[in-house]
Design a protein that fits this description.
4-stranded mixed sheet; DUF262 domain-containing protein; GmrSD_N
Length: 554
């Protein structure tokens, strides 16, 4: 493999006559967030008197006049953005220096498609060229204020670019306001950017070799995710068999969009768990290379596109058209229950809506009983979901009964569940809200008062802070207050205003408030003449019995 490795700076990178650094069409759009921009600005301004290493840039140069930037797009785009802002400041403060910067942004007398020394990706090309790269006095340069007039689609694609340009402009303006000599400070920044930022450029002759570099960098601990590596490996494989790299890159972007913000590596791991019994995060890339070899590019990408749509529905249940399935997915979201996604991925393409709803409900119930209440071994539960997924993935709808039996067999017994439930304490609010909503909707199936719990608050019947009256009422049990105050038997739900009114009143004074609640669980509390440790234990035991029925794998 003929690889060139050089240490260089931006002056040398952009100083080659009639050369254009090109972001290839399969690269994702510019995506740096404000955090990375802040870090870049401080890296530059905090080291003005010394050099600063910016990392590696991987170039692929089958055409030496148009080397493709395989790795380094985000850094180079951001740095060029800042350099163009410095040039624009020169236009206002010392116009004769504009050309010094512009000569590193523009190829004089070049053909239109080679005019600029840095060509952004297609998604950002028009905005980056028209609003950034053109010289300030060029008739083709568009006024920055008019960027807001772009159509919504182009605005969305360029949101990070627009926001980061404005963020850098703000930093630069404040920096110059504090400077004794703004022009001298601009020249200092320009010099630092052009000569003080150091890069290692790795230049390879073809795309397949370029992606091998990605794997090498990852082996050495640089921050490339399994998703990045998989994409690059797929593109390299496509290049070797003369598949369209551009089409494959578009398909990959579709997969990312289908996930609705879900983590690509987590999706890939759950996808693999439909086939493999054990998949650690670090195994994802290796196993996908194996899948690619077994199934080929086209089949694998087709499957990923389909599965990513289903996964996006787990992330955003509102996308699900079937009301029953949507409700269960919302419950899974509330529980933060992701371990069952492997089984749901396998089920989604082969089951009818009602079957999928019931199967998803089994996953919800098993996760709640097994993990949330009984705190059993999560690795074993993942194996259970893999076995269910495998039955559905290999046999389709015919494997449903085996998948159901697999889940049912793993469920804790009623005795295990009730004992564990009786000793639970508050923990995370979303768990308490989920439990009490489930119990309430079982007790009031027609009303379903608690379709969501956003408008209600968790009420401690025996309050967290005891008044003197409460201390008197507890008597000899006072020392057990801390042990029982957060027990589920001591919790209920109240509307916001009622919750404030109840506060830390003694139990007899709370009874009228509880009677006025729309929540049946709360309205049942006044049957108690008093409230203390005994009543908390009794109520939690009764709730455990109801919960065992509500969350039962029928």
């Amino acid at each position: 493999m003929n690889i060139k490795v050089d240490q260089t700076n931006l002056k040398k990178l952009l100083g080659v006559p009639d050369r254009q650094l090109t972001i290839p069409p399969y690269q994702r759009p510019y995506a740096w967030e404000s955090e990375q921009i802040d870090e870049l600005w401080h890296d530059i301004t905090d080291t003005l008197d010394s050099s600063h290493f910016m990392g590696s840039v991987v170039l692929c140069s089958p055409d030496e006049q148009r080397p493709e930037v395989i790795d380094g797009q985000q850094r180079l785009t951001s740095i060029v953005l800042l350099l163009a802002l410095i040039r624009d400041q020169y236009q206002a403060l010392k116009p004769e220096l504009v050309g010094r910067v512009q000569m590193f942004l523009e190829n004089s007398y070049a053909a239109p498609d080679m005019r600029f020394k840095f060509r952004s990706g297609n998604s950002n090309l028009r905005v980056f060229t028209d609003f950034v790269l053109h010289a300030p006095d060029s008739p083709s340069r568009r006024n920055w204020a008019s960027v807001a007039e772009l159509d919504s689609h182009e605005l969305n694609r360029n949101r990070n670019l627009i926001d980061n340009r404005e963020r850098l402009a703000g930093y630069l303006t404040k920096h110059l306001e504090l400077a004794h000599n703004p022009v001298q400070e601009l020249e200092c920044l320009e010099h630092k950017i052009m000569t003080g930022l150091q890069f290692v450029v790795i230049d390879v002759p073809d795309i397949a070799n370029a992606f091998i570099i990605f794997e090498t960098l990852n082996d050495r601990g640089l921050a490339l995710s399994a998703g990045d590596l998989l994409k690059n490996h797929l593109l390299a494989a496509a290049a070797k068999v003369n598949e369209s790299v551009e089409t494959l890159a578009e398909d990959w972007d579709t997969i990312i969009n289908n996930l609705e913000g879900g983590d690509i590596t987590r999706f890939l791991r759950h996808y693999l768990l439909t086939s493999y019994a054990k998949v650690q995060k670090d195994d994802v890339f290796t196993l996908f290379k194996k899948e690619l070899t077994s199934h080929g590019i086209k089949k694998l990408i087709k499957d990923l596109k389909q599965m990513s749509r289903f996964y996006g529905q787990f992330v955003k249940p509102e996308l699900v058209s079937n009301a029953g399935v949507r409700e269960v997915y919302q419950n899974l979201n509330t529980l933060r229950a992701t371990m069952c996604y492997s089984a749901l991925l396998a089920a989604s393409p082969v089951l009818k809506a009602d079957q999928l709803r019931d199967f998803a409900r089994l996953c919800e119930v098993l996760t709640f009983r097994y993990s949330t209440i009984c705190s059993k071994d999560s690795k074993e539960l993942e194996r259970v979901y893999h076995n269910a997924a495998k039955a559905l993935a290999t046999r389709g709808e015919e494997g449903l009964n085996d998948a159901i039996q697999t889940l049912q067999a793993a469920s804790p017994t009623s005795e295990e569940f009730r004992i564990a439930f009786q000793h639970q304490t508050m923990g995370r609010h979303y768990i308490v809200n989920y439990i009490f909503r489930g119990l309430e909707n079982y007790l009031e199936p027609e009303e379903k008062t608690l379709q969501n719990t956003q408008r209600v608050h968790i009420e401690h019947i025996m309050p967290q802070t005891l008044s003197s009256e409460w201390r008197d009422e507890l008597g000899d049990d006072l020392e057990q207050h801390e042990l029982y105050v957060n027990r589920w038997g001591n919790l209920t739900l109240l509307g916001g205003k009622l919750n404030i009114s109840a506060s830390n009143r003694v139990f007899k004074e709370k009874i009228d408030l509880y009677k006025g609640s729309k929540i049946k669980l709360t309205r049942k509390l006044p049957k108690h003449a008093a409230w203390g440790i005994k009543q908390i234990e009794q109520r939690q035991k009764a709730l455990a019995k109801v919960a065992d029925y509500v969350w039962k794998l029928h």
